[in-house]
Amino acid sequence: MFNKERWDEILEALNANKFRTFLTAFGVFWGIAILVLLLALTNGLQKGVVSSFGNFAANSSFVYVRGTTIPYKGLPKNRRFDLDLDDVEAIKQQIPEIKYVSPQNRLGGYMGANNVTRGSETGAFQVEAHVPDIINQNPMDILQGRFINESDLTEKRKVCVIGTGVEKSLYKKGEEIIGSYLKINGVNFMVIGIFKYSKSRGDQQEEVNTIVTPFTTFGQVFNFGDKVGWMAITAYDDVNITSLKPRILNVLKTRHTVNPDDDAAFGYHDISEDYARVNGLFAILTFVGYFVGSLILMSGIIGISNIMLIVVKERTKEIGIRRALGATPFVVKAQILQESLILTIMSGMVGISFAAGIIWLMNYLLDLSGPVDNFSNPSVSMGVVFTALIILVVSGILAGLIPANSATKMKPVDALRIE
């Protein structure tokens, strides 16, 4: 435990040569600041890249048809076929590990020809066909009204939920939206809700200009029937969707008479694999951040160790007097170690504070400038700060260990003779 006299001695030793102490401390300050900043930037990059996936359930995949590439049972290659609602039911029944299977279709696009009218207002919007489960896979914030439900699906109601971009384009401020009607390709649909995606899936302009309709209604009104453009499949949390891929494809191959080896007949986008690759990449980048930051910090620690050796050399006579007056080697070693530890921790804490200030400034500028592609909210967790503190303590001990051992090896008589 430190007492006042010991603190006075430590402060006096550090103030004896302020410029030298500053240069020595700067190495540790800079090393720990670089370590924290590297980890914060890596974290910000990871958040930005992961956010580009949107809020879609990570344990999911998308399946769609590409066309056969291998002849099978008298059927030629390059054969096209469509997925249908029976495929959805077959996957649900034959693979119990599946939690949600959501068939989807799409019509038009916000950059295409005008396909939606309301009175004198017209616009080109993306019209999507969904089932209610999609909101569990790709969460949406319902700003007004409600989302489509099973009754809408069963009764094939002509209802829709619109994005915020549709609202701004077709409605004037203050107009009643819920219960109003839109014409989609000449067919009236009643607006039952306004939504926005909880997180962006990519093209934000496309997302806000989207209209969601019940899947069955869409199929009947726009002559799609039971055709499924693609389906979103989500597994239960304790099952990796990647492990279910062969079984999912086998169900579809059997139903559509596709060669068992013809995996290319179906497009299969596995979000789980994408997440795994991204997380693996950033695990490596985090390791690199720790490695590079630690190397820079190590140079500062070596500097402290060298300075403490010089300090021990300068205080050889003082150490000899202490030893002659009865100071044990442990007391002398503790004095040197404490000086090294205090210098390391003080400079390291200033470095952490400096890095925290830079991180705050980066987030402030990001808030002012708006979203940046693939970069978002750089930060470090308390675990990183705690790890940095442990590194500082260990580094301070290591920096003082060699000088402390050097001081205790000297005999008191020899130390007193040195001028």
From TrEMBL:
Entries under InterPro entries matching the protein: ABC3_permease_C (IPR003838), MacB_PCD (IPR025857), Macrolide_Exporter_MacB (IPR050250)
Compartments in which it is found: Cell membrane
Alphabetic keyword roster: ATP-binding, Cell membrane, Membrane, Nucleotide-binding, Transmembrane, Transmembrane helix
Membrane topology (UniProt): Multi-pass membrane protein
Membrane spanning stretches: 21-41, 281-312, 341-362, 382-402
An example Gene Ontology CC term for this record: plasma membrane
GO molecular function, one term: transmembrane transporter activity
Domain ABC3 transporter permease C-terminal: 291-412
Keyword Transmembrane assigned: yes
Ranges of residues in domain MacB-like periplasmic core: 21-248
Family under the similarity heading: Belongs to the ABC-4 integral membrane protein family.
Protein name: ABC transporter ATP-binding protein
Organism of origin: Yeosuana aromativorans
